[in-house]
Amino acid sequence: MKLVNIIFALVSIFIINSAIQAEGKGELVLRVTEIPPMYFQTHTGEWTGRDYSIAKRIIENAGYSLRIVTMPWKRALTELIKGELVDVLAGVTPNQERAKDYLFIGPYDYEEIGLIVKKEDENLPIHTVSDLIEHLQKTKMKVGYHRGYIFPGEFKKYATNKRYSHGFTNYEQGGKMLRANRIIGFIAQRAVSQYQIDNGVEHMRGLVVHSFIFRRAPNYLALSKKSDPQVYVDLVSSFDELKWTDVFEEIKKTKWKKPVKSVENLNLITALEPPQQYLEDGKLQGIGIDVINAIQNEIGSSYKISHFPWARGMKNAKINKNSIMFLAAKTLDREPHFIFLGPILAKKYYLYKRSTDNLMIESLEAARNVESIASVQSDVRTKYLINQKFSNIHLMRDHQQGLLMLTRGRVDLWTSSDWELSSQLKAADISFSQVIPVYELFKKYNYIIINNQTNPKTIREWKKALRKIKDDGTMDNIAAKWSKKLNLNLHFSKKSDAIEIKLE
Asked: Are 80 and 94 spatial neighbours (Cβ–Cβ below 8 Å)?
């Protein structure tokens, strides 16, 4: 009986420890792009597809949550080396060069790279690379290829020779060049090309997949070598577990069908900044979330919202078209890259000190003379201080980190706002009596910002929807809801066209 109890206790400890480890593993960022049947969005904006589903199962089975970012293939390969914006990339074929920077999990599938031509060229006598080169020399034409692909050694030297080849970044470019007779054909994934042809994709009309196959190679998940080594161990273990099941085969057998209705691929990005955006029981909540959801309800979309640390989220929104970041202030360095929708909120930004500190700050000059000021990297407050020639800024990943450093005496001042202070104190379990505002920096409006390379139709839709919820009372209702919840006197001001903290 004692032995049974001991065994039961050991098993219980193992289960509890496993659960704790899984819960604390965090998230991995997977790169996707609209390229059915590998990756595409449903009519509700959810991502699906063969490679996406396989990667998702491996990642989640390993105990990690999944976050996605859209990015072209060639850029994704570069970003994966850095390990900042992308953690995992699917559909990667290993080679010696890539092995220097990536770790590989798999293979989970095999892909064939072939030649796409016009219907009338379906029977071109091309069976080898030599046949293709001979045909190019004879016709004085070029062949298109997808940048970032790995080609057999015999063709690699031609892939970078402008006399024979023309690079492109997506299938649409390749299809358009071929239909315009600028190239004899283009080299691409046979499965993806056949899918697009079968589903009547406009740029693939009148094209066929030629019988010639450049290569057949295994597909792996690639992980940045900058990642925690434990992540690699977990993903390999997850793959090894799943490969003995029917999971991968069932995913491959799925007849993927992209919705007929075209959808704009939007990345909705935010940073955790209570009370605008925060997590409650694992779900995003806050004023900013309510505003975005109201706009989506008006438009009829339901795109998933991803949250990143502030600097990472802003960088992501800046370099990827069809990205929407919220909520953010308007600054000179952001204006060339974004369209600003709003305003949404009006905020006053302050320098805060410990209430037990005798420090007196009556001017910016006085603030420059303190030893250190905690402020979040890439935040509007930090940008303001930098523009004012401050050299004593201690950069933080988030506001709560700065607050804790202030109360523990590791910095002299901390930047925050009248909006966020209450939630930040509550989250850190710090009383109002411990910190006080010592100097008002400025007043700013916060906006929804859209990458300026986004489809103009999408921008117009979002502007119209925002105007609608401001005029029909929705913003008043959001202000009233959060006024009660936060114990702040909030109201939607017709004058400023934004939600403000109303002075008594």
From this structure: no
Predicted pLDDT of residue 263: 44
Q: Report how far apart, in Å, the C-alpha atoms of 394 and of each of 66, 333, 377, 382 are.
A: 31, 21, 9, 9
Is residue 136 within 8 A of residue 227, CB to CB? The reply is no
Half-sphere exposure of 107 (CA within 13 A, CB side): 11
Give me the half-sphere count of Cα atoms (radius 13 Å) on the Cβ side of residue 354: 14
Handedness of CA 266, 340, 326, 288 (dihedral sign): negative
Q: List % helix, strand, coil for the chain (3-state, nearest 5).
A: 40, 30, 30
Q: Do domains 111-217 and 264-504 have the same CATH topology?
A: yes
pLDDT in tens, 137-183: 899 998 888 776 656 556 666 666 777 778 787 888 888 989 889 99
Give dist(CA 273, CA 285) in Å, integer: 10
CA distances from 488 to 479, 481, 484 (A): 10, 10, 7
Pick the CATH number of 2-107+219-253 from 3.40.190.10, 3.40.50.720, 2.60.40.10, 2.60.120.200: 3.40.190.10
Please state whether beta strands 267-270 and 305-307 pair in parallel, antiparallel, or not at all (unpaired): parallel
Render 398-431 in DSSP notation, one character per residue: SHHHHHHHHHTTS-SEEEEETTTHHHHHHHTT--
DSSP notation for 12-76? HHHHHHHHHHHHTS-EEEEEE-SBTTTBEE-TTS-EE-HHHHHHHHHHHHTT-EEEEEE--HHHH
What sign does the CA torsion over 92, 95, 98, 104 have? positive
**Among 477, 473, 451, 502, residue whose Cα is nearest residue 328:** 451
Name the pTM for this structure: 0.47
| CATH superfamily for domain 111-217 | Periplasmic binding protein-like II (3.40.190.10)
Class for the domain spanning 264-504: alpha beta
pLDDT in tens, 316-330: 999 998 999 999 989
Q: Which tokens in the block code for residue 337?
A: 């890259």
Domain boundaries along the sequence of the chain: 2-107+219-253, 111-217, 264-504
- Side-chain-facing half-sphere of 175: CA atoms under 13 Å: 19
Backbone angles phi, psi at 92, to 5 degrees: -105, 130
d(CA 176, CA 433): 65
Within a 10 A sphere around the Cβ of 153, how many other Cβ atoms? 7
Whole-angstrom distance, CA of residue 194 vs CA of residue 114: 11
Whether the Cβ atoms of residue 221 and residue 90 lie closer than 8 Å to each other: yes
Mean pLDDT of 253-266: 64
- To the nearest 10°, the Cα dihedral for 289, 290, 291, 297? 110
Peptide bond into 456 cis (omega under 30): no
User: Phi/psi zone of residue 378: left (φ > 0), alpha (ψ -120 to 50 degrees), beta?
Assistant: left
